[in-house]
Structure formats: C-alpha cells, structure tokens
Specification:
The complex is a heterodimer of chains A (422) and B (170). With 422 residues, chain A is an alpha/beta fold. Chain A has helices at residues 8-16, 39-50, 76-91, 105-111, 143-152, 177-188, 203-206, 210-218, 234-241, 301-304, 307-317, 335-343, 346-353, 403-412; strands at residues 27-31, 35-37, 63-66, 96-98, 120-123, 137-140, 154-158, 162-168, 197-201, 227-229, 261-266, 273-275, 283-285, 296-299, 327-330, 356-357, 378-381, 397-401. In chain A, strand 3, helix 3 and strand 4 (96-98) form a beta-alpha-beta unit. In chain B, a hairpin with a 4-residue loop joins strand 5 and strand 6 (129-132). Chain B is globular and about 45 Å long. The chains are: A alpha/beta (422), B alpha/beta (170).
Chain lengths: 422, 170
Amino acid sequence: MNKTGMTIAEKILAFKSGKTKTEAGEFVEAKADLTITNDTSGHILVRAFKQVGIPRIWDSEKFVICLDHLVPADNPQTASNHNLIRQFVQDQKIRHFFDINEGVHLQVACEKGLVRPGMLIPGNDSHCTMFGALGAFGTGISIPETVELLAIGKLWFKVPSTIKLDLYGDLPSMVTPKDIILEIIGKFGADGTIYKAVEFSGSAIKAISMDGRFTLCNMAVEMGAKIGIIEPDETTIEYLKKRTNQPFQIVRNDSNAKFERVESLDVSTIEPKVSLPHKVDSVVSVREVKGVKINQAFIGSCTNGRFSDLQIAAQILKGHQVHPSARLIVNPASKEVYLKTLDEGVLKILIESGAVICNPGCGACIGATKGVLGDGEICISSTSRNFRGRMGSDKAKVFLASPATVAASAITGEITDPRRFV
Amino acid sequence: MRDLIRKGRAWKYGDSIDSDQIYPGKYMHIHVPAEAAKHLMEGVDLQFSQKVRRGDFLVVGKNFGLGSIRGGVHLAFEHLRLGGIVAESFSRGFFRSCISEGIPVLECPGAVAKIETGDVIEVNFTTGEVQNLTRNEVIKGNKLPTFIIEKIFSGGSIPLLRKMFAARPE
C-alpha cells in the first residue's frame, strides 16, 4: 500500500501536537519548544502578559528575550521600555536574556544554540522564518499569541502545504544567496506563497554556507511564506556542534511526502539583483538600474549582517573609498559577527574605506535609529524590506540588494554591479 | 449557535498595504493604546484614526498587512475596536494577529469592487457573507473555521486566557 508520507512541516507539527500524522490544511494545537521577542515588541508583550492575571510564565527556560531594535536606547521612553523588560526577566527568572550588546535577536538565538532542528519556534518577529535554515519550524506570531505561549505553551496552527524549490548549478562569482532569494521573490510575488512552507533544496543549497541559508529562509516571509525550511545536512550539524550540546532530532521529508509543487531553478543563470522601491517583489537585474545615484548604502540586519556578508563587502571595498557623495553604514548582526570581523581584519578594511560601523542590532533597517533616511534620499540596502517609509522619510527610496552590490555601489555612488570589482 | 454578524461603515483602501504603512517603525517605543491608535494606517491615510469610529470596517485589497509584526498594531486595535477587516487577501501574520486581537476578519475576493468608502456593510462571519446595505449587493467570502470565529468573538487571546485562568482553582 502506498500511503502518503509527510513533509518536514507536517511532521514537526504532528510531533508537537501529539499526533502520528498531519496533513496540509488541517488545524492542530501544538506545543512550542521556544518563543522569542525583542525590545520593541517585548515591552508591549510584558504589559499584555500582565493583563492575564497569572504570576508566572509557562516555562522560563523556553523564552528568549533580546534587546536589539532600539539599542542603546535613543529616547527616555525606549530606556524605560528596556528597563520594564529587564525587570520582567528578573522577576520571571528568564535565563535566555540578551541585553543591548548582543545583536539581532534571531541571529543571537541561532548562534547561542537555542534553535535546533525539529523545534517549533513561533516568535514575535516575522523573520522567525530564518530558523528554518537550521531545520526548525520558525514563524511569526502576534503579541497576544505570544502571550498565549507565555501562559500555556501552546497555540493553534494550520498545517501548511509545502512548495519545494530544487536549486541546482554553481552560483557565479559575486552572485550571492541574497540574489537567489530576490530572484525567487520576483518570480513568486509578495503574495505568491502565503501560508505555505517553502523548502529550499537541491545541490546548490548543499554548497551554501549557514550564513547564506539564513538569508534564504529569512526572506521567505517576503513572499508570504509561513516558514522557510532547509533539510539539515553536514553544514547544519557542523554549525550546531560548536554551539550546543543539547540533543536534537533531525526531521526530514518522507520519501513519499506530498508537495504542493516542486520547482527547479538553475542558480548559475542568476545575476546580481535589486528590488526596486517600494515593493520587495519588484525585482530586476542590477544592470537594468545601474547608474542610479545613491545617498546611503547599508549593510546589516537579520537578513544580511553576518560574517560572510561583511567579508564580501570588505573584499570589494579593499583599496577603495566610499564615494564622497554617499555614506556607508555597517551593522554587524551580532557580537559574534562583530568580534570575528574585528579579528579577521574585515572591520579595518571597512573603516579605512570610509564606512561607519554601528553596534550590533537592527540598526537602519527599521528606520527608527542610526541611519534614518531624509526626504528625497536614495539608499541601497542589504536588508529585507523597502516599503515606503521603512528606513525613515516616506519620501525616501530604498533598493534592496546583496552586500556585494551594496559595497560596489558605495564605491561608485551609484547602483553598481559588483562583478565590476572582481 | 446564533450567527455572528457585525454592521458598520466601510473605509476602503488598496492592495499590498504593508506593515510600515499600517504602523511606521518610528512609533515602536509607544506603549499607550490611545497614542498608538493615532498612527494606525498613517502611511495610507493620515486622518484615518480621526475619521474611524468604533465598529467601522476596513475594506482592503490583496495581501493586507505584509511585512513586520508590529506591537503597536495590537495597542491601536485595542483602542479603536474596529468592527472588522474585509480583505481580498491577508498576509498570514496579520491575519493571525487579528484573530488573536478579537478583530473579525474575512477574506472576500471581489469585495473591493463592490464596496465604497462610506457604504454600510453587514458581515455574517458564520456564513462568510458580506451584504452591502448601501448598494444592496451580497458578496460571498471565505468562511472561517468555527473555532476561529469563536476565538475572535470571545475577544481574542487575552480575554480567553483571563477567563481560563479565572475558572481554574488555585
């Protein structure tokens, strides 16, 4: 008898809801392994939790709080919000608390070994899809839903169907995972995979480092996906080995799993890409917009602020200066990235080229701190969103690109194909 | 169970209204609901919060709410108490947010073409039907599962939790 198997997404939700089988479209109530918040949602979350009227959270080991969006505090209200969170952490004896020095919460949770294969991690940030790079089911939830998790540890889910992307071919020089995901988002559209699991698989994925895998899964949400997921392999295990001694269970697709559809993409044909203001899914090749003058270039965020992102930028910027009419701002995604780029001389190259290095955190991506855009300004950014007003003035324009393209553009002061600097 | 019906004035806006139009990042430090409410939908309509009344409906296009999950939206909703949101389609994160806030949501392809700002609509969430009382038209939406409708009409996550824990003996 040929019984249909389960996808990774179906399996994780089955395990976590105590079932032997779930199928796409089914509703389940599943127990979370972890939940996570940051400072800008966290202060509202803490206040909302207090409305429930219970003294303690469900499990003080399963809640990660990291101050990362507005750090260090940039106004008295933010400072008070941070203190409210710190007090809550103390009162609830929350172990996984990371203060303003650590970096972007999603990155920090991965680096600290808190995200492991097979886990269910609904969190307070839409980019929780990033956890799929480690084979975990990570997805964004609202403040009241996070309150539910804090109170009872479980939540309802609709089991998603899976769109499997088979990526093959060799990625050309100066073309990065960011270009792959922009290409894919351009094809599917911003609402192309709403409520779906998007699985990245194939020989091209095997060749991509963890840094690049995080970028792919991180941006799956930009086409509406509920999760992005990559089946763990040696690269995943190597990453985890250095970071945790906790046991984990790798969840794989059954050989007879049912996918909504499978699509192939030859990554050797991909060119450096940009997404045009103000829609993430209006994607074109860099050469189609080359020459557009920029005022600011930004490298950072949970999407592209990791070691390899800063490294490729330094490789391009070495021996060059940031164009006099532009500025380059760099935010390492975490303290770990900050230290590694410091140790390996990456920061030195960036600083010598004229870059401003900001402390680890979300930085300019959210348009609320350090690198806010003014009226009429144009920015090329390695981040994930270019919505109107996202990075400051609603009269500014943001182009999204890879850190390589951002670095190349910083040198010339206009949108530039990074292959010019090979 | 009686049909769950709400009636209210419609405010119509377009497609792909993202998180930064619904609640700009620069207000992320705000924690007072009335303050947060002043900025809801600011990116599409600066006057929205002044015009909208309790019970009014948002009628919006495709992929409503794409992007970030903003805590301020929770506060704004808590304050404004909209009648509901009817959309051609929702982003997943926003859709779930509304359910957990007790904001009735209905996915209703075709609604935007048949509803104008100022129309009075009556939405039957039990059947998934939208009646435009001003234009005398009926539009069929995608009915939600009963447990979700019940969750919404119990006020969402926090009132449900309060009730659950209040009923529990110490």
